[in-house]
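Example S7 (structure tokens).
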């Protein structure tokens, strides 16, 4: 499982943890997130994240 960091605010999306508050189950891979996924902290688009 990988992690991805928002280059705007630093929020980290961890595939192992998902984002349950946003309806994204643990184990959800980055590629499987909806195209309109936004950073929960700052609202940045998915293309503003980088793999870490």
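Recovered sequence:
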């Amino acid at each position: 499982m990988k992690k991805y960091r928002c280059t705007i605010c630093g929020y980290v999306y961890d595939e192992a943890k998902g984002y349950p508050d946003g309806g994204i189950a643990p184990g959800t891979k980055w590629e499987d997130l909806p195209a309109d996924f936004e950073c929960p902290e700052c609202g940045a688009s998915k293309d503003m994240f980088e793999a870490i």
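Notes on this example. Strands lie at 3-6, 12-14, 49-51.
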